[in-house]
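Check these lines:
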Amino acid sequence: MMKVVSVLVLAMFIATSAWQISCADPPNEEPPHRITPLMKMKLDKSKAILEGLTLEDFDAITKNAKALKLLSLESGWNVLQTPEYVTQSQEFRRTADMIAEAAKEKNISRATLGYVSMTVRCVECHSYMRKHRMELN
């Protein structure tokens, strides 16, 4: 149990640190973006995985990790056509698979580490997208 708590604390620390780093970026002169329906679904599924992890609800973890992978295959996901973006998306799908697999095995520590990895991937990819879009403008 202590190991699970330690992993969850680590996950929350990393997620909070990533959020703080993204907030430290210089202000963007563009108007704030509205959350697209696909992004809203991604956030909802990600939150549901975190809830599943905290409650050790392995069915919810599996279901939402699989749903996230399916969302990553939607045409609206592919907003950039670069090799780096393709790699980022493949890595995201790999971590979603890892989370689902770990949940099926009822391995909360591995599922949590997968969630942390997925969160880092999301932040890195969104940072890449913002930077790439600024370079195009």
